[in-house]
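User: Predict the structure for this protein chain, please.
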Amino acid sequence: MKLIVGLGNPGEEFDNTPHNAGFAAVDNIAKQINAKFSRRVKSGGVYAEGEFAGQKVVLLKPQTFMNTSGDAVFAYAKKYNLKPSDVIVLLDDFELSDGLIRARLEGTGGTHNGLKNIVLRLGTTEFARVRIGVGEPPKDQDYATFVLSKMSGERLKNVNLGIEKAINLVQDWLNGKNIATTM
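Assistant: Here is the predicted structure, written as structure tokens:
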């Protein structure tokens, strides 16, 4: 069993925002495998179970808001008795051009508060992560406003292409391939 985590913020008002690229990625995986997310938030997240790339998986969307995503990841890893190496996290990254992907098998949380919280709660940096580039904010907009603003046009198109690449990397990871790359 593997845990595939998409980071984002709960609520329709955050759909199609840069910060919800991870949610969009696991939603797309759920559609591909015909899995439905539960409405239960007992452990701080909604989840779906299924099979993806020949592996049993749990798809998780933490409902604790971005900065405390680690609470739900820790709870589900414990619930399914998973090691950190059984976890992959999909998240946005404004330091990468929109649509660019950076995948690593381990590493720090960097500037991403959700990822930093997962590192804190799991007590290790040894879990896979795929960063989905959402690009820099316009010069007149701060980062917090940018990541919570709706995307459209070319940026949305590029981020969606990045999400597709991220899903392909998740499949590679499930098949035991080294996914460390930037593309």
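The chain has a mean pLDDT of 94.
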